[in-house]
Amino acid sequence: MELNEKMQKLDQAWANPPGFIGWLRIVNQTNIGVRYIYTSLIFFFMSGVLGLMMRVQLASAETNVLGPEVFNQIFTVHGTAMMFLFAIPMVEGLGAYIVPLMIGTRDLSFPRLSSFSYFVFLIGGITLFGSLFMNVAPNAGWFDYVPLALKEWSPGKNIDVYATVITFIEISALAAAVELIVTILKQRAPGMTMARMPVFVWSILVMAFMIVFAMPGVIVGSVMLALDRIIGTVFFEASLGGDSLLWQHLFWWFGHPEVYIAFLPAAGVVSTIIPVFCKRPLYGYTAVVMSMVATGIISFGLWVHHMFTTGIPDQASAFFSVASAMIAIPSGIQIYCWIATILTGRPRFNTALLWCMGFVIVFVMGGLSGIMVASLPFDKQTHDTYFVVAHFHYVLIGGVVFPVFGGIYYWWPKFTGKLLNEKLGKINFWLVVIGFNIAFFPMHILGLQGMPRRIYTYIEEMNWGAMNMLSSLGAYLLGVGFFVFIINVIWTIKKGEVASNNPWDADTLEWLADSPPKNYKFVEIPRVKSLNPLWDDEMPVDATTGMRVDRREVLITEILSSKVQAVVILPTNSIWPFVLALATAVAFIGSIFSPWWFVVSIGLVFISITGWFWPHRPWDSGRDV
After folding, report:
1. Cβ of 318: how many Cβ atoms within 10 Å?
2. CA 71 to CA 552: how far, in whole Å?
3. What distance separates the 2 farthest-apart alpha carbons in the chain?
4. What is the pLDDT of residue 51?
């Protein structure tokens, strides 16, 4: 079969349906990945606006721009959205889009599951932000501590929104994680052994396994909290035999690994970008991969360091203090490998590389303050002060947001076929770096001066006004910096430079595909012979896989050796993942008002799943379901 005829048949087999209903039916991985990325960016900017509102309120003493209840809702939604609607969905979205391209496959393992996970994420995010406008937004912090979150102290619907929406959103995260694990282990291109997997793919694999182990903790906790509030169980009511600290154990079993769930893919982005702009392979590939695996394992031994002031036994405190300090070792190994790559290469300081270098500096600063709060005596003095606020913003913004924006500048040509403007990109970077440090470094000082977290105002006599004003000015500059990014995106859409398939002369397989890639990604599946295939190989393709071009098929390979095992037929576009997401939303969001909505939704869920799995042969009939 000639190449043009093969491409024409592939275009037909992998075509997206037209119109709005067609948009709801699309299951292709690149479409779902882009939706995740764009939606999480929108939630990021919305959360940032809430953060600026808080800084307006705290800029000076006894300000009355926001009342205490509104401040608590804004404060809670800001933190909840940044963690649940930006950090994890963003890195999962990058994984959904980039991983299949990097490993040389045509789609994720379960396309309809990826569509379902996106719509669950979207509905959950809309519900959370919508609750702000209805004045029923969560108001007990993104960690939602009991007993404050119990019915006696929070009688409104605010905490019910939190408990149900968080459980709902985590279904999306778990579904995406399972799909990424299966895709990475079983769909790599022939020849891409585990030792030849790109570091970014390793980071997504470790992240996905961490989600599978960590997310059930917060799901169980939020379900138990919902049951306490809705039907009167007493899991967390200490006066009736429950345990209020049980919530903290369940939440932080998830909550601290979550930092590394978001950080590891961001580190994978850095390990991808630095070699490309330094024109040399990553220094210490094996050490970096092993460090990521070690970080993922050790991160599950840290959760109690959030609970040093709760009266836990000294032996337990000592163990978690040591573990909290020890996790800096694998992170430090990665940083040394990045520095060695830069020093031994020929760096080109494009915007993407600048974000990575800014990440290294800011993340190291956040890591050092993390070692400080891992010390029991120091933590007991600074716990629940603004020192901790400064620490986790340095870790999360420096360790996640900076690399993510580096990745956006790096992969934007792959997403859109156009290059973001470099001049605007550098302005964007420097405004964000300067504004960030002005905004959050003074919070270390405020914490050492005793300013507690989660207060909506303070009196003049505390002498916190000057540092708070400086912090607020930095936050405004930070907001301007991110606004420049929005301008850059708009300018690029209208007048941006068209990119070639591989504008950076990169080494990984995603740059072998078109920019933006076709729905089927590769006409012929690549056969990989090295860790840096586009630099080291002539990239012969495997034309003897037996794959048909008139239907959606992917190669299945062995986990370790990546030898071809089988060809699997993938399902086509379908409306049922969207319908199932709506049915699931009826169950969870309806339970805010009555547990009977779970009963009502059973029929809707059954119909949706039946439609999803109803047997058909679309490759013969040419139709989608």
Report:
1. 11
2. 50
3. 82
4. 95
Helix-then-strand count for the chain, H and E = 22, 6
CA distance 470 to 196: 48
Yes or no: say if 96 and 114 are a contact pair by the CB < 8 Å rule: yes
Two tokens, residue 268:
């994978």
As a whole number of Å, the end-to-end CA separation of the chain is: 29
Closest listed residue to residue 421, CA positions, set 357, 485, 481, 511: 485
CA 280, distance to chain mean position in Å, is 28
Percent of residues, the chain, with pLDDT higher than 90: 78
Report residue 44 CA to chain centroid gap.
Answer: 11
Token pair, residue 419, equals 């290059």
- Summarize the confidence of residues 584-608 as an average pLDDT: 88
Using an 8 Å Cβ cutoff, are 554 and 183 in contact? Answer: no
Q: Report which DSSP code applies to 347.
A: -
DSSP 8-state code for residue 623: -
Three-state DSSP class for residue 525: strand
User: pLDDT digits over 26-51, tens only?
Assistant: 999 999 999 999 999 999 999 999 99
pLDDT in tens, 547-564: 888 899 999 999 999 999
What 8-state DSSP symbol labels residue 235? S
Confirm if 440 and 51 have CB atoms less than 8 A apart.
Answer: no
Note the pLDDT tens digit of each residue in 135-193: 999 999 888 999 999 998 999 899 999 999 998 999 999 999 999 999 999 999 999 99
Q: Which residue has the tokens 């903290």?
A: 248
Distance CA 523, CA 373 (A): 53
**What does the pLDDT read at residue 124?**
94
CA–CA separation, 171 and 121 (whole Å): 8
Beta strand 497-498 pairing with 418-419: antiparallel
- Phi-psi region for residue 279, left (φ > 0), alpha (ψ -120 to 50) or beta? left
Both tokens of 50, joined, read 């809430």
pLDDT in tens, 528-538: 989 999 998 66
430 burial type by CB count under 10 A (0-12 exposed, 13-18 middle, 19+ buried) = middle
